């Protein structure tokens, strides 16, 4: 259904269309465009959304947004259901509000079509900057609109490896090394890394940390990696593949907490205990980690700090300041609970 059903197909959107869709007067739309600081945040957001939905970008009034700050930034996320997202967003919003900015959440669910839709905000100048949680530039593999230029960009939580985009996140390598060394200190010599395939840069970084941790064992421990995706089901499937091959570790180092929960579930269904028979360690310290039984030993991400630092960096870039560094990493802290114990004989 069209956003403005009484407008003929192909006819350029007008300020009246925007006002009708936003439920405000034409004067309010004009004021939101020319002097956004004099319009309430809620009203400005409705006008901004209406402009993007109607495609009201060719009009000279709308194009004037390119020469002034909209005081809005966009956060592009692959999923708002990601357990890391709320903590990141809280940090971002606090930093944005402190600087007089609002935050637009663009949820893609992995859909290129949705990314293209969100690009209308960028091409119309509705946002001053963009934080990427997706690990890639928007509309990957698609041709950008004529005359399009990205606003200032910052990647958070997941680096954009295909472009020079400043990155803020956890030290995946350092944290994974700490986790591996902890398992070795408990006497484990058969440690498997359960991660995603080679297309996930974060999983690869954590695997690299795992390898560096094994170096402390002076070659006495052979690296071991099985694919377990990002989810509970991936962790369960990884355990089943290991049992089919009858090659079992004594400890599982999992890509994230969801995978670790799946591993523990599969072991429990087969009658094994954690940590009596197998040790399991996760990554992220999401809310589920402390509520399952046994409580999960994991690496804690400082999500609020990462979100705030990413927003601060973006707003400095929006104001014309250069990024002082290409990468800002925060330490991941080992949180010891109940899922790891001494290696069984």
TrEMBL record:
<keyword id="KW-0678">Repressor</keyword>
<feature type="domain" description="HTH lacI-type">
    <location>
        <begin position="13"/>
        <end position="67"/>
    </location>
</feature>
<dbReference type="InterPro" id="IPR010982">
    <property type="entry name" value="Lambda_DNA-bd_dom_sf"/>
</dbReference>
<dbReference type="GO" id="GO:0003700">
    <property type="term" value="F:DNA-binding transcription factor activity"/>
</dbReference>
<dbReference type="GO" id="GO:0000976">
    <property type="term" value="F:transcription cis-regulatory region binding"/>
</dbReference>
<dbReference type="Pfam" id="PF13377">
    <property type="entry name" value="Peripla_BP_3"/>
</dbReference>
<keyword id="KW-0805">Transcription regulation</keyword>
<dbReference type="InterPro" id="IPR046335">
    <property type="entry name" value="LacI/GalR-like_sensor"/>
</dbReference>
<protein>
    <submittedName>
        <fullName>HTH-type transcriptional repressor CytR</fullName>
    </submittedName>
</protein>
<dbReference type="InterPro" id="IPR000843">
    <property type="entry name" value="HTH_LacI"/>
</dbReference>
<dbReference type="Pfam" id="PF00356">
    <property type="entry name" value="LacI"/>
</dbReference>
<keyword id="KW-0804">Transcription</keyword>
<keyword id="KW-0238">DNA-binding</keyword>
<dbReference type="InterPro" id="IPR028082">
    <property type="entry name" value="Peripla_BP_I"/>
</dbReference>
């Amino acid at each position: 259904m069209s956003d403005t059903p009484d407008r003929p197909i192909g006819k350029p959107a007008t300020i009246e269309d925007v006002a009708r869709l936003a439920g405000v007067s034409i004067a309010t739309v004009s004021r939101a465009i020319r002097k956004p600081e004099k319009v309430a945040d809620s009203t400005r957001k409705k006008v901004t959304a209406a402009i993007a939905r109607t495609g009201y970008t060719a009009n000279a009034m709308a194009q004037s947004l390119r020469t002034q700050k909209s005081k809005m930034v966009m956060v592009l996320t692959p999923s708002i259901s990601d357990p890391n997202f709320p903590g990141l967003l809280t940090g971002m919003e606090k930093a944005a509000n402190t600087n007089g900015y609002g935050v637009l959440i663009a949820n893609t669910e992995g859909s290129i079509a949705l990314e293209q839709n969100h690009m209308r905000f960028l091409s119309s100048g509705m946002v001053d900057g963009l934080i990427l949680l997706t690990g890639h530039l928007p509309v990957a593999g698609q041709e950008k609109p004529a005359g399009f230029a990205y606003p200032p960009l910052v990647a958070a939580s997941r680096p954009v490896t295909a472009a020079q985009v400043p990155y803020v996140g956890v030290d995946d390598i350092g944290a994974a090394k700490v986790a591996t060394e902890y398992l070795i200190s408990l006497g484990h010599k058969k440690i498997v890394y359960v991660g995603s395939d080679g297309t996930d840069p974060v999983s690869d970084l954590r695997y690299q940390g795992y390898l560096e941790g094994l170096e402390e064992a002076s070659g006495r421990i052979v690296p071991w990696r099985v694919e377990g995706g990002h989810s509970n089901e991936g962790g369960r499937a990884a355990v089943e593949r290991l049992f089919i091959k009858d090659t079992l570790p004594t400890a599982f180092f999992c890509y994230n907490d969801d995978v670790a929960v799946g591993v523990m579930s599969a072991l429990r269904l087969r009658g094994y205990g954690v940590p009596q028979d197998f040790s399991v360690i996760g990554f992220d310290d999401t809310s589920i980690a402390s509520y399952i039984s046994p409580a999960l030993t994991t690496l804690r991400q400082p999500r609020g700090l990462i979100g705030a630092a990413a927003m601060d960096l973006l707003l400095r870039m929006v104001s014309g300041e250069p990024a002082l560094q290409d990468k800002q990493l925060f330490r991941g802290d080992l949180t010891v609970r109940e899922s790891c114990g001494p290696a069984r004989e």
